[in-house]
Structures are given as structure tokens and as C-alpha cells.
Specification:
The protein has 322 residues and is an alpha/beta fold. It is built from eleven helices and eleven strands.
Amino acid sequence: MSTTQTLEFRHNNLLPLLFGEHNSHLNYLEQKLGIQISDRGNTVTLSGDDVSVKTAENILNSLLEKIEKKREIGKAEIDAELRFIKNKRKNKDKEFAVSKNKTVIQTKKKSIAARSPNQEAYLRAMLEHEMVFGLGPAGTGKTYLAVATAVSMYLAGDVERLIFCRPAVEAGERLGFLPGDMKEKVDPYLRPIYDALHDMLPHDLMMKKIETGDIEIAPLAFMRGRTLSNAFVILDEAQNSTTTQMKMILTRLGESSRMVITGDLSQTDLPVGVKSGLRDATEILNDVDDIKFIYFDREDVTRHKLVSKIVKAYDQKGENTR
């Protein structure tokens, strides 16, 4: 059934941010929901089917709340709201259906919130559990949200140091043939961690904390023989760890520490015939109390919309091959 709804907003000074440059946000909502939106002054008129008009109203009100809290909004936030609304309708009777109280992570440079229901579950899991596995395809925010949570807990004084590691599997035993010292050899494999940290901490502060050892970014092999206490530990790209390496890092967890393990089981770079430590861990630990597993899928991809389509295409090819 077709309907028309008129919304009136009080804060005229915030409307340019809400509507977007040249009304780009309103135009995007029109395109995504198949409705018509017209604005005059501080009023907006929505025309279309009942469900889509109500959806647009909810999204505009939610975006305005974000703006009032000094958070930046764009098309990505509109897509996020659409994901949450879709999930709420699909799972209206389930516990994890979206609520208004979404988790927001505070860092020095920005506030970070979930953009999908699984991301919301992931954030809550990292705040509530000492060990969390985040599993799924590229672009779902596994590493980024883990780094954000780690930085937030460090700034709040909940942990004393941050430890980020990845298997440098592509280098294997060939590190000696690469130019430069050890840091220069392994940094390319750890660049995504640096990029995420740059998004959340001022450069000078980040470099100072790395120099003092409060932030450590190192290959997985460097963790052997240590006990990681009072730390937030992230093992990224864990699908490239061997079973021995995975057991090693999981048993490094010390007092007052948390550990997040992220990976995509469809993208292992291990030699043929070598079992992924991540796959092994999911099989062994899936029923262990107090370890939380969060599974992402292509619906959670928050990069360019083409990334989700690419993941879907590869998934379909894999299914056909099987």
C-alpha cells in the first residue's frame, strides 16, 4: 500500500549533514528503497510503499542521532542501517536482533560502530569474552574491529599492552633473502595492522607506544616461549598458521589478557597438504565454554559493494566445484 509521510526536523544546522552534499544521502535512500523524497526547509516528505517509507523514516532519525553525537555519516552508514533493519525483520524473535543500544568503540581519532548484526555480535563478544574467534571473508571488519577494541581497552587502562601478530607464511624460510633488517623484512606482512592503528591513534602517539613496547607488532613465530599477560593479543590471518603454531599462540594467554583470532578459511596460503591451524582450532575448541566464535558471511562485507559480489561469485564457484 502506498503512503506519504512528512518529517519535521528541529535542528536546521544539522540538516546539510543529514541530507548530504547536493542531497546525496536522500538520493541514495530513494535508490535503495524505491521511494520518492522531497525536502523543503526543515521538512522531508517520503512517498512510497508503507514498509519502505517507514524504513526511510527510521534511518533518517538514526542518522540524525549519530550526527548529534558528533559522528560522521555517509552512504556506508545508510547501508549499515539497512542491514540492521533487514536482520531485525528476519530475526524479530531472536535474542541477537538489533537494538537501539549499538556498541560504540572510542579511540583517540574516531568512534567506531558495527555496520552489520554480526559485527555488533563480534564487538560484544570481544568485550565480554577473553578469547574470541572472528571467521569469515575479506572486508567484513574482522581485523579492523579487533584492533579498535584493543586500542579502546588499552586507552581505558583495561590492558597494559597490545600485541598484534600474523603468520609471515609467504616469506617462509626465505626471510634471509629479503633486503633490510628484520623489521624491514616482516613489516610488509603486518601492514594492515599498522593501517588500522593509524586510523585510531595519532601517529606520534602510536610510534611512541611502539618504541616503548606498549604496542608490539610481530610475526607469529616471535611469540614462541612467551607468556602474554595484561595484554590484548590479536592473531590476524590465522588461516595461515599451522596446527603447531596455533596451539602455541593459544597457550600463550596469560593473566588479565584477552585474545582475538581472525581469519578466512577459504584463503589459506599454506602448502598443499598442510592443515590450517585455524581450521584445526575450530574443530577442537568449538564446544569449549568461554570461547566465542563469530562467523561472518558476504552480507557483512562493508567495503565497496563490488567486494560482496566478488565474494558471492567465488562462493558459488566453490559450491559448483564441490
